Amino acid sequence: MRIVWVVLALCVALAGCVAGSSAQSVDAGVPAFRRARGSRSTSVGGPSSGTLRGGVSLPERAPGLVSNPRRPNATAFYGTAELVNMLASAAATVDRAMPGGTCTVNDLGFERGGPIDHHGSHQAGRDVDVLFYLLNAEGRPHPSIGVPIDPAGEGTDYRDLLDPSDDIPLRIDLPRTWRFVQALVEDEHALVQRIFVVEHVRTMLLAEAARQHAPAAAIQRFSEVSCQPAYAHDDHLHVRLFCSDEDLAAGCADSVPMYPWRLAQIERAGLEPVAEVRARRRRSRVVTEEEARANAPPMHESVRAFLDRRESWIVQPHPGRRYCR
Ligand SMILES: [Zn+2]
Description:
Distance between the termini: 32 Å
Largest sheet: 4 strands, mixed
Number of strands: 15
Number of helices: 10
Helix content: 25-40%
Order of helices and strands: HHEEEEEEHEEEEEEHEHHEEHHHH
Number of domains: 1
CATH architecture: 2-Layer Sandwich
Radius of gyration: 19 Å
Bound molecules: zinc ion
Structural class: alpha+beta
Strand order of the largest sheet: 8-15-13-14
CATH class: Alpha Beta
CATH topology: Muramoyl-pentapeptide Carboxypeptidase, domain 2
C-alpha cells in the first residue's frame, strides 16, 4: 500500500479522486491528437455542468508524456482538441529542453463529458489534472506519482505504509514543472483560465521562473491565473481552459473569473462572453477528513506525522491571498 492511497483517501474527503485501471488504446498510424484541429471538438456548457462533442483522446504515450493508466477514472482521457494538443505540446517542449523527465497526466474527462466521479468539474473537456515532475534524492527524474509536496518542496513515496525502510524521499522538479507551466500559458491555441495549485508550490514556481529568466509575459500570466482552491492541490496541477472562440459561438460557457484581456479578445472576435450557469451543485461523495483518517490503513509514524503536518497547508492559504474557486 502506498502513500497514494492515503492521499486519495484524503482527496476524497476534501474534493477527491480515486484510482482505477485503464484499457486505453492508441490510435494506429499518425496519432489522432496530432491531426485534430479545434474544429473537431466542441466544449458545450461549463466546466461543472457541461458536455463534450467530438472529444479527442490523449495518447497513452507521447514524447515526454504518459497518460496515467492508474488515473482516478479509467476512461477519463478525453478533452477538447485544444486541451490534448496543449498537453502533448507542453510535455514535448519540456522533453526537448530538459530530457529525462516524464509528465504524467491524470483525469481529463469522458468522451462525451458530463459528471465524473470525484470531481466537481472536468465535465466539458477543458479540465485536466497533471502530476508534478519529481526528482529523487540524487536529483534525477523520478516517475511522477501523486506525492504531496510540503512547503520545503519535498515529499515522500511511502510505498508500504507500514514499512519505513522502503520510503523514497523525493522533491518537486521545479525546473521541469515550471517549464511545463510556461508552455501552457504560452500556448496560443489553448487559453489557460486557471491553474489550481497549493500556494507554496505556486510561490516556488514563480521563484523558479525568475531563476530561469522566463519571459515576463509568461510569469505575469501564470501569476494571474494560478491560485489555491479550498482543496489544496499539493500533488498536482489542475488546469482549466477558456472556451475557444469557436466553441464559444457553439454553446461553450466560461466559469469565473473572466479577465479583462480575455474579454477584449472576445470582443475583437465579435463574440459575447457566456457565463456558466450552474444548476444545483452536484453532491459529490464527500466524507470528512476525520472519517478518511479513521478509515485509512495502518501506517508508520512518519506517514502519520506528514499527514498531520499537511493539514497546516491544506486548510490555510498564504496570508494575504484568498482561496480561489
Ligand atoms: Zn482536477
